[in-house]
Amino acid sequence: MSDITEPSIARVDVVRETLHGVTLEDPYRWMETEGEEFHHWLDGQARHAREHLDALPHRSGLLTRIRELGSALTRYFGLAMAADRVFALVREPDARVPVLTVTEADGASRVLFDPGTVPGDGHHAIDWYVPSPDGRHVACAVSASGSEDSSIHVIDADSGALRETIPPTTRFAFLSWLEDGRSFVYHRYAEQHLLDSRSFLHRLGADPAQDAVVLARGLNPHVELTPRDRPFLVVPPHGEWMLAIVSHGALSPWPWTGEQLSDCTLYVAPRTGLADPAACPWRLVAGVADGVTAFATSHDTLYLVTHRDAPRSRVLAVPLAAPDLSRARVIVPAGERAVESVRVVGDRLLVRELDGGVSRMRHVPLSGGEPADLPMPVDGAILEWTTHSTRPEALLLVAGWTDAPRLYRYDGHFLQDTGLAPRSPVDFGDVHARTLYAPAQDGTPIPLTVIHHKDLELDGDNPAVLTGYGSHGFIDLPEFRPEMLAWYERGGVYAVAHLRGGGTYGREWHEAGRGERKEATITDFIDCAEHLIALGYTRPGRLAGEGVSSGGIPTGGALVRRPDLWAAMAMHVPTVNTTRNEFTDSGPVNVPEFGSVTTEEGLRALLIIDAYLRVRDGVPYPAVLLTTGLRDARVPPWQPAKLAARLQAATASGRPVLMRVEERGWHGAGSTSDQEQALLADVLAFILHASDGS
């Protein structure tokens, strides 16, 4: 490793500012302009990181094994049903990106759309898609190199021919086909910024530039919007009503357009109002204080999952014609399980719940009655589900930590394996997964999933990776990753901390790690690490932390608070300089979650989670691997770059601080299989090298 060039040194130019009586010092504020100097420095960092990672002794063998494991399983996801057709995104073992497939009523399957055929630089990927209810057309969102700045390709489902394309500016799957099957409403941003977004009505064959605005700030006096708010229009495939969902904060990505909501306001109106959007008689159903996180509709009823007066949520029903929450029927009362979402299937309501992070399902007659448990095939996760618009039928993709995804059909009574998702040839029979409970500083038990080879010795000398997220109410669902067998075969431990701030126990778990309570997210992560050590799974010299995006908050917080606890820290496209986050394009929508420097309370909350400002000179920090994508629109490259520069200047340990740069990468979505496998090999090799002490 001695032949590796040294990383380029970043210029220090301290900017001092005083906010609410607190003076902040920022030595690398100049990076935020992302000018020529920044990119020159970043190029040098990228070369240094690549040389270092390529020279790691374990990398070559890990990459070979990861590719072998990754090429063994065909992956199905992104399910949808329309007419007699089943649509799915499928990634074959040798494919760079998933393709859109359609399965006909006779069982014959074919590729309907391959994003690899889209011309342009880099690779293209499907972000989401929505078939028309008659199954004749598919609106398919495609972006370049995982940018999530999607263009909409309208595909003829009979021939696979491209009908037309709406240029990029779309990012969310709030797209609803109308009953004619030839028009749809959709949401898009302005070309230059993320403020004042709008929903439009598009008719096939029309010029997208002439699409009519149907929901926007200042358009209709009944719907109040700020520049930051995003107005989404939902037109169900049945009935006479439509919904307006106004998002005031960050949202979870597709496919959960009708669930995992937060900080939203809901309105209802007759769909005839589309003829005159400015005069459409929108009626308020629920505000932010009503805590609606998911919804579903039948012809005349709106079903709402709400955490108001129910810490783990309950299900209410109101008539669409008179949606008065004060007179709502309780369909599923509050209980020990956290209610996630609901779907209408025939004459029943399917209710998806979480029981300590494990998916459960109940169904209840729409006419009323007691919810009944639906036996699940594994104690794992419902990764996704979809329902048919006219038939009493649902498809559920179910998986566990050691169980490959299987596709099940619900017929109103039971779950049956469809056989459509192939069984995994990767044998996890010798891999063990269990859930522990780590005692937090305040006594709260924090669920901690631990996965490893069943013959692992608890001698405190195993390399271990602890990962966590803990924001936005995000749920760390069981995920089957065949490539991770390369880690378990080497005696590695992989642990998932289900942190407060996430959604393991519903809204109460989210609120317990939000805003000024965000310290709990970080201390939970540290407490989980110490629990692994206390039980003999690992020790500080062999333990690494890992986090992605907002997962940079627990990992960055643990790095600067307890550097002695870690051999290494791997942080991917991380949010680490939160006091500057709201000044990014995507930052304003995160203010409800994290806070704003414009208020004293908000500044206090942000200073809790700003790892960059907490780095101190002369501290022996562990080895650190930071990653970014040059085209990341959610967390700009300067966020991890500033932390890399600060750690390189401050650390006294002599351990590497690397800045890994993906030239044709964004925030992770839409990555090719080669990119995903190379990143995993880099991370595991980096961690092994740091924990080996070599």
TrEMBL record:
Coiled coil: none
Gene3D superfamilies in UniProt: alpha/beta hydrolase (3.40.50.1820), Prolyl oligopeptidase, N-terminal domain (2.130.10.120)
Pfam families the record matches: Peptidase_S9 (PF00326), Peptidase_S9_N (PF02897)
GO cellular component: cytosol
Matching SUPFAM superfamilies: alpha/beta-Hydrolases, Peptidase/esterase 'gauge' domain
Domain Peptidase S9 prolyl oligopeptidase catalytic: 479-691
Annotated protein name in UniProt: prolyl oligopeptidase
Organism in which the protein naturally occurs: Streptosporangium album
